[in-house]
Amino acid sequence: MPLGTLDRTPPPFFKQGPSALSKLMVFSAVALFLMVADTRFRIAGPLRAALATALYPVQWLVQQPVQAAGQAGGYFTSLHAAQKNETAAQQRLAQQAVRAQQVEQLTLENQRLRELLAMRERIGTTATGAQVLYDAADPYARKVVIDRGQTHGIEAGSPVVDDSGVLGQVTRVYPLVSEVTLLIDRDQAIPVLNARTGVRSVAYGQPAASGDALELRYTLASADINQGDLLTTSGVDGVYPPGLPVARVTQVERRAESSFTRIVCEPLARVQGALHVLVLAPVGASLPPSPLPEPVSPSRRLATDTAKARSAKP
């Protein structure tokens, strides 16, 4: 092979171009020129807009996983916060409901206490306020227990009233509590007076599953009594003060085969839901004692007998 045909040029790997310093100077000059030109003529604005438009799909695609992860975390966070807020709201609602019920109960209790005080002023006798603790354990009796006893001056036989009328009578007295037998008890009776006609009678307790009531027994069929008549205490028993409301006639049954009339009355007092009551002193205990006769000396007695004997002689 002739030597003239050999290529004596170095391979491209070993070719050397411009030096690094010259490239730095050229590119620095170009960058400075572009900055000055962009500042003066705004030539890079369209280029930036075109580049941003071209890269926007790529940016949106890259941001989707990050946004999805953030939305998922926000969803669970907001769900937990919503559940927590709901629980707190339900608790506040329950507290408000309890407070509303307490307000209604206190309002009703205050109203009943005012009516009870008005009843005390109308009665005009010694009265002791008491609170009903619970019903008696005997299911066949209509009795309640109050928080006043012997230490508070309560006596057996004292009448008990509420703001609507006569409730019953104290039958047992303990040191701290007392037992009150209600009017509707089977063994309880109270003398009453018809406020319209003035006729006296006796009302007996009549407990029943359909509703507790009072009954006027041994009333003649010709008696003048109508539905709606008001019955009050007559005061002849020496226990209940006269004029206290007791019951109202709700049913009058006149039977042809009987000479007596069946009369059912509804008690005016709250025999099923009384909370505060007044314990009155018995009428006999409040009456002043009758004066005792003055002792007569033997000499005065002898003189009196002598005068009577002389007046008896003809």
Could you walk me through the main structural features you see in this protein, from its secondary elements to its overall organization?
It is rod-shaped and about 155 Å long. 39% of the residues lie in helices and 25% in strands. With 314 residues, it is an alpha+beta fold. The longest helix is centred in the N-terminal third of the chain and has 80 residues, at 44-123. It starts with 19 loop residues before the first helix and ends with a helix. The chain has helices at residues 20-41, 44-123, 283-286, 298-312; strands at 127-135, 143-146, 159-161, 166-173, 178-182, 189-194, 200-206, 213-220, 230-233, 245-254, 260-267, 276-280.
The percentage helix is 25-40%
Query: Ends: how far apart?
Result: 210 Å
Low-confidence stretches: 287-293
Portion of residues in beta strands equals 15-25%
Shape: rod-shaped
Tally the beta strands.
12
Rg (CA only): 53 Å
Query: Which sequence of SSEs, written as H and E, runs from N to C?
Result: HHEEEEEEEEEEEEHH
Strand order, sheet with most strands: 1-2-5-4-3-12
Counting DSSP H or I runs of 4 or more residues, the number of helices is: 4
Largest sheet: 6 strands, antiparallel, barrel
Structural class: alpha+beta
Mean pLDDT: 79
Explain the layout of strands and helices:
Layout lengths: L19 H22 L2 H80 L3 E9 L7 E4 L12 E3 L4 E8 L4 E5 L6 E6 L5 E7 L6 E8 L9 E4 L11 E10 L5 E8 L8 E5 L2 H4 L11 H15 L2
Antiparallel strand pairs: 1-2, 1-12, 2-5, 3-4, 3-12, 4-5, 6-7, 6-9, 7-8, 8-11, 9-10, 10-11
